[in-house]
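Quarterly update from the structural biology core.
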Amino acid sequence: MKKHLLFLGPPGAGKGTQAKLLSEVTSFLHLSTGELLRKEIDLGTDLGKQVKDIMNKGELVSDQLVLEIVKKNLKRNNKGWILDGYPRNLTQVKSLNDILEKLNQPLEIVFYLEIPDEVLIKRLLLRGRKDDNEETIKTRLKIYKETTEPLIEYYKKLSQLEYINANRDLKSISADIKQKMA
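Predicted structure, tokenized:
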């Protein structure tokens, strides 16, 4: 069974939900950059205040900041891990690859959760987060397409990419992921 996983997909595709479910059944460490950043905001740290301002504008947090958080968590003793929301661009892929090589924990499989934009926008508006309104959602989708979609090609060339239809019920998606991990 593969135990070093990455979930890719646009905001609202269900990466966090699927990663959390998988983490619960496998005891793998779930590293959600979004959750780690929101935790900083909730704690009211200086870092959290910076992150909050950036997120409220619909912009993305700096690579260095996110990398440090991911690195710290990957060093923890774990049976496996699931990266969710990171890396977001090819620069981050290179930085992550360097860390994973040093830790001797190579990435084994990348799940790309595919879903139509109109379904995403509806989902995100229903989620009702403070930083989710139609304008910021469209900004985030635009940034996602510009920066993250090249990763799909990158991982496809490495034969690590598995497409997952994310416009289905949770159980079907989970079953599909588990089958492809075996």
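The mean pLDDT is 91.
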